[in-house]
Amino acid sequence: MSKVSKKSSSTSKKKKKSSRSQYTKKKTASNSGIPNFCVLPEVPERTFEADVSPFRASLIRFMAKKWVNGTKLRYYFFRNGTMGGAQNQINMVKQGFDVWMQLGIGISFEEVDDIGEAEIRVGFLQGDGAWSYVGRDVVDIPGQQERTMNFGWDLTADPRGVDTPVHEIGHTLGFPHEHQNPFAGIVWDEAAVYNYFGSPPNNWSQQQTFYNVLRKLNAGEVEGTDWDPDSVMHYAFPPNLIVEPEEYRNGLRPALGLSARDIEQVKLFYPEINDALYPELKPLQSVTLQLQPAEQRDYLIKPPETRDYTIQTFGQSDTVMVLFEDQDGDHRYVDGDDDSGMNFNSQITERLYKGRRYILRIRLYSSYSTGETAVMLW
Ligand SMILES: [Zn+2]
Fold first, then answer.
1. How far does residue 62's CA lie from ligand 1's centre (Å)?
2. What is the pLDDT of residues 163-205, one digit of tens each?
3. Is the pLDDT of residue 101 over 60?
4. pLDDT at 212 exceeding the cut of 80
């Protein structure tokens, strides 16, 4: 069980792990009219071998933190001690999960009482700010006692209401800060930005300010070329920090709630799916995937006998492949592999049991050469 929930749908044994020594978190501070700011834990940017082209790398970055669609994420609340949250705080965060769920997306959330089963572990350490790891980075957080998300101020007194939990859960879904969108075209008064976030009540280090505000994301990490200043993933900014676009010199306040583009984005990566419609993947039948970048195929596997099986993709492509067992509609992670940026294919070998049902999900990052990608079970 612990292996199952810990690794969830990230998996890759070969993927570079993030170095924890580089995490920085500092106190954000109490309310002073301007809302508190989310401060993300710093995770090193992924690097690629020299034979991975910039285009291929950008397609990998586009998907790398996103979950395989159809993943069920289980969340746990700390309720006692310094990490623990009062029931009214916990209820606000639950509402945040509901806001995303009610959109009808392919990701589902479920609260669990056993921390060992939870991919998302929510703490309420006061003074530690609001933050979450981004997307599949949460499964790289070692141990089963560490938080993957925190709320460090009274959410019931926050004028943004449920938007703060919605924002942090948006990070867990794999979405970055929208004000770091390279297409925003924001020109900052950098000295003023460092001064503002470095002063009370925030007291951020220069590196924290750079990482969370000034740093521009890679173009490949965002979808399309639009900027959405009303995104729930966008900070509010006081006057005199933004030089261009001129209209935001007097400050920028995103509208409350999810924007139309937030909804479009989450449905792009996590469209609603129907488990009943998957074709069956039978042993020794090679199936051509015909996938576009970021597209996913899902297959049902009904093992004809109990034994070890191998599932592998073929072709020059980058894929993430995750196997779940379908226990009466409750999907439990079995195994997964991710060959992105590598010159070999995703492969899973597991013992599968006759009489049980399994769901295989395969998402394409890129096909870096001509030719098709296929999958086979044997
Ligand atoms: Zn944030």
1. 18
2. 999 999 999 999 999 999 988 889 999 999 999 999 887 888 9
3. yes
4. yes
Amino acid 347 reads Q
Domain boundary among 214, 248, 269: 269
Six-digit token string for 2: 């612990």
54: left (phi over 0), alpha (psi -120 to 50) or beta: alpha
Within 8 A by CB and 6+ apart from 17, the residues are 140
250 shares a domain with 119: yes
**Which residue among 248, 269, 290 closes a domain?**
269
Neighbours of ion ligand 1 (CB under 5 A): 38
Question: Which tens digits make up the pLDDT trace of 236-291?
Answer: 999 999 999 999 999 999 999 999 999 999 999 999 998 888 999 999 999 998 88
Q: Are residues 231 and 333 in the same domain?
A: no
The alpha carbon of 166 and the centre of ligand 1 are apart by a number of angstroms equal to 10
**Judgement on whether residues 175 and 283 belong to the same structural domain of the protein:** no
Domain limits for position 24: 2-269
What's the 187 CA to ligand 1 centre distance in angstroms?
20
Distance 167 CA to ligand 1 centre (A): 6
> Read out DSSP for 304-352?
SSSEEEEEEEESSEEEEEEEEEEETTEEEEEEEEE-TTSSS--EEEEEE
Q: Is 253 in the same domain as 282?
A: no
**Phi/psi of residue 348, nearest 5 degrees:** -125, 135
Whether residue 254 is found in the same domain as residue 286: no
Q: How far is the CA of 373 from the centre of ligand 1 (A)?
A: 36
Q: How far is the CA of 226 from the centre of ligand 1 (A)?
A: 19
Q: How far is the CA of 368 from the centre of ligand 1 (A)?
A: 33
What separation in Å is there between the alpha carbon of 133 and the centre of ligand 1?
A: 9
Q: How far is the CA of 134 from the centre of ligand 1 (A)?
A: 9
Residue 35: pLDDT band (50, 70, 90) is low
Quote the pTM value.
0.86
Q: Are 113 and 228 contained in the same domain?
A: yes
